[in-house]
């Protein structure tokens, strides 16, 4: 998964799992690449089914989106290897 898509998953993960409230608002941006990137996360099973077309611009995704067990596992796994990749 590309970094630009992973960033969405990681921010939602940290706001819900690791550091609740650390990302006070993660606003949905209807214009630009965000709808497609969130749809990719839904399609691949990283976040629960969500009707992207029903989202309004500037809605807080941290309160709307739920990660699936696969999404949680993916972030945990990827973050285990990020520090090693940075030092290698």
Which secondary structure elements does this structure contain, and how are they paired or packed?
Layout: H1 3-18, H2 34-43, H3 61-64, H4 69-87
Helix pairs in contact: 1-2
Write up what this structure looks like.
It contains 4 helices and no strands. The chain is mainly alpha-helical. It has one domain (3-65). Helix 1 (3-18) packs across helix 2 (34-43). It is globular.
Notable features of this structure?
88 residues; mainly alpha; globular
Oligomeric category: single chain
Mean pLDDT: 85
The rounded distance between the terminal residues' Cα atoms is 20 Å
Strand content: under 5%
Sequence of secondary-structure elements: HHHH
Fraction of helical residues: 55-70%
Outline the biggest β-sheet.
none
Tell me, what's the shape? globular
Which stretches of 5+ consecutive residues score pLDDT under 50?
Answer: none
Rg to the nearest angstrom? 13 Å
Helix/strand-derived category reads mainly alpha
Question: What is the β-strand count?
Answer: 0
Tally of discrete structural domains: 1
What is the count of DSSP helices, taking H or I runs of 4+ residues? 4
In short:
This protein is mostly helical and 88 residues long.
């Amino acid at each position: 998964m590309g970094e630009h898509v992973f960033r969405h998953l990681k921010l939602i993960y940290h706001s819900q799992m690791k550091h609740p409230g650390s990302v006070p608002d993660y606003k949905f941006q209807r214009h630009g690449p965000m709808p497609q990137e969130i749809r990719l996360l839904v399609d691949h099973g990283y976040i629960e089914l969500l009707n992207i077309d029903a989202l309004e611009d500037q809605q807080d995704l941290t309160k709307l989106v739920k990660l699936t067990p696969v999404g949680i596992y993916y972030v945990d796994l990827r973050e285990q290897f990020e520090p090693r990749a940075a030092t290698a």
